[in-house]
């Protein structure tokens, strides 16, 4: 038989055991609500992503997972980029050495700028030299056009006008040009009186105005050019915006007045015996930026100094 004190202790222990059970029950209830809420949120995200996939693909209802949905979207974006690159690669192969393939404009494609414009500086009375170059490497008619369209290389003979404007020399060049259509005639240059450097300067200026090319090359009419080798070499220098390339040398400065190549400003050059480093005149190449600079400053008296 229990005493009154024993009954009171048992009642107290029973009440204490019910309190932790109540806390556990409340915790379990809140945990269930939290988990259910997260599951509902994940389900809503899943539904949203699947709907987005359906909207993008236009394939109606889908039962794939969220992970698969994201993978498909990423995969299709990569396919779009790959298709665009394949189109550009195919176009570049067709264009030969054309520098940057194609530009997309309003859903159509047009050619980019030519790789190089080659100016062959020639003179009156050198028709045989020009014909030899046409047969050897330059081509004429359809062959010349093929080089322009296929390789992005434009070639022209460069000549000025006769001191007696409109005489038989001018007429011969005009007649030849009507047959071949491969001249760049410098109407503002008089052959024989203004010198070779002036003619080269005017070629670069006029060529930069006429064609927006990557490079411009000056060549003499007794030089034979390997078009493929030149195109391949220049294609590796497209990342150089201020290129001046050729057979570089430092020629001798002649201070004697009776010398054929007398330099009136011989005293300006360092040791007074050699010019600054420059390309040999038979052939050299400059980039578009330099050609544009020459074009802009063609009439300047001090910016562009000519050395013979």
TrEMBL record:
Keyword Transmembrane helix found: yes
Enzyme class: transferase
Top-level taxon in the UniProt lineage: Eukaryota
GO molecular function terms noted in the UniProt entry: hexosyltransferase activity
Chief localisation class: Golgi
Cross-referenced InterPro entries: DUF4094, Glyco_trans_31
Enzyme Commission (EC) number: 2.4.1.-
Domain DUF4094: 18-94
Needed cofactors: Mn(2+)
Location within or outside the cell: Golgi apparatus membrane
Topology versus the membrane: Single-pass type II membrane protein
UniProt cross-references to Gene3D superfamilies, sorted A to Z: 3.90.550.50
Keyword annotations from UniProtKB, A to Z: Glycosyltransferase, Golgi apparatus, Manganese, Membrane, Signal-anchor, Transferase, Transmembrane, Transmembrane helix
Transmembrane region(s): 21-40
GO cellular component: Golgi membrane
Pfam families: DUF4094, Galactosyl_T
Pathway membership: Protein modification; protein glycosylation
Signal peptide: none
Family: Belongs to the glycosyltransferase 31 family.
Protein name in the entry: Hexosyltransferase
Gene assigned in the entry: 11411516
């Amino acid at each position: 038989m229990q005493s009154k004190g024993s009954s009171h202790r048992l009642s107290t222990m029973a009440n204490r055991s019910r309190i932790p059970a109540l806390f556990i029950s409340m915790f379990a209830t809140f945990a269930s609500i939290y988990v259910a809420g997260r599951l509902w949120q994940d389900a809503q995200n899943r539904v949203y992503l699947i709907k987005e996939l359906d909207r993008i693909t236009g394939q109606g209802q889908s039962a794939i997972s969220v992970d698969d949905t994201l993978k498909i979207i990423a995969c299709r974006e990569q396919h779009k980029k790959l298709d665009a690159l394949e189109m550009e690669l195919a176009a570049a192969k067709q264009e030969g050495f054309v520098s940057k393939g194609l530009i997309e404009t309003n859903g159509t494609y047009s050619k980019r700028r030519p790789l190089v414009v080659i100016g062959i500086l020639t003179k009156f009375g050198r028709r045989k030299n020009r014909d030899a170059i046409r047969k050897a490497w330059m081509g004429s008619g359809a062959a010349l056009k093929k080089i322009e369209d296929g390789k992005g290389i434009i070639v022209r003979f460069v000549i000025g006008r006769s001191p007696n404007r409109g005489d038989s020399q001018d007429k011969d060049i005009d007649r030849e040009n009507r047959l071949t259509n491969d001249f760049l005639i410098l109407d503002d240059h008089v052959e024989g009186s203004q010198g070779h450097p002036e003619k080269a300067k005017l070629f670069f200026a006029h060529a930069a105005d006429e064609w927006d090319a990557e490079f411009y090359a000056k060549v003499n009419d007794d030089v034979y050019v390997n078009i493929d080798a030149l195109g391949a070499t220049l294609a590796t220098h497209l990342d150089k915006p201020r290129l001046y390339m050729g057979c570089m040398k430092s020629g001798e400065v002649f201070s004697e007045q009776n010398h054929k190549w007398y330099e009136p400003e011989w005293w300006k050059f360092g040791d007074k015996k050699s010019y600054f480093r420059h390309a040999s005149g038979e052939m050299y190449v400059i980039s578009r930026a330099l050609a544009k600079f020459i074009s802009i400053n063609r009439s300047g008296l001090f910016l562009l100094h000519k050395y013979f």
